[in-house]
Design a protein that fits this description.
The protein has two domains: about 170 residues, Rossmann fold (3-Layer(aba) Sandwich), CATH 3.40.50.1240; about 45 residues, no CATH class. The chain has a six-stranded mixed sheet. Helix content is about 40%, strand content about 15%. Helix 2 packs across helix 3, helix 4 crosses helix 6 and helix 5 crosses helix 6.
Length: about 230
């Protein structure tokens, strides 16, 4: 059975608002984040889902419950948490200032004091950017390209196992993880360069086929445009 997957990025959090690195570190949704998510929930309220899932981080769990509570045509039981869909792990940089973190990674990669992450990735390519992040991390705990790619493949395999008898599901994940999925599985991405970072509460739609192949068909759609 082919499964349609609605990937939702969680709502704005306190760390998003404070411009802090937020991977496996967690912070609560802001009032703005909740209000923006209500628009997404309303846009999806008349779409039937056989099930809903989320990563195991609280900001994603809170987001999926907002989606569940607003949906008028689905009967969703207990939400299953899938840790494979956690955000990218930034190791020792978790909770640090974002601009200072990008500057540190940029310097480690020999690009000077660049703070625009898209410019850094476009110069290095995604592979070297992930490697530079791990190298710049004092404890070298940050996920590099191979580690993240392995987890991403495992995540899709796990999702196929969970949804084998489901036509359409909703899954709440995270910005960098969704973006990395799109770079790999969206035919409008060349698989090398950076693409736009998905907005909080945005909708990315994918198709999971019987043989486990995954393809993204819509990326970073805002609620008002859905």
């Amino acid at each position: 059975m082919t499964t349609e997957v609605y990937l939702i990025r969680h709502g704005e959090t306190m760390f998003n608002q404070l411009n802090k690195v937020q991977g496996w570190a967690d912070s609560p949704l802001t009032i703005k984040g909740i209000n923006d998510l209500k628009k997404t929930a309303e846009a999806l309220s008349q779409i039937h889902f056989d099930n809903m899932y989320s990563s195991d981080l609280k900001r994603a769990i809170d987001t999926v419950h907002l989606m569940k509570n607003a949906n008028e045509v689905s009967e969703i039981g207990k939400i299953k948490k899938l840790p494979e869909f956690r955000e990218v792990f930034f190791g020792s940089f978790e909770g640090d200032d974002i601009d200072q973190t990008w500057e540190c990674i940029s310097q480690k990669a020999g690009l000077g004091k660049e703070r625009d992450v898209q410019k850094i990735i476009n110069q290095l390519g995604l592979y070297k950017f992930r490697e530079a992040t791990k190298a710049a991390d004092p404890r070298h705990l940050a996920e590099n390209y191979d580690e993240l790619n392995t987890r991403m493949i495992r995540a899709i395999k796990k999702l196929r196992e969970e949804t084998v008898n489901e036509n359409r599901v909703l899954l709440v994940s995270h910005g960098d993880f969704i973006k990395t999925l799109a770079i790999k599985y969206w035919n409008k991405s060349d698989g090398i360069h950076d693409i736009a970072f998905p907005d909080n509460g945005s909708i990315t739609r994918g198709i999971l086929s019987d043989d486990g192949k995954f393809e993204i068909v819509d990326y970073n759609i805002k609620a008002e445009d859905f």
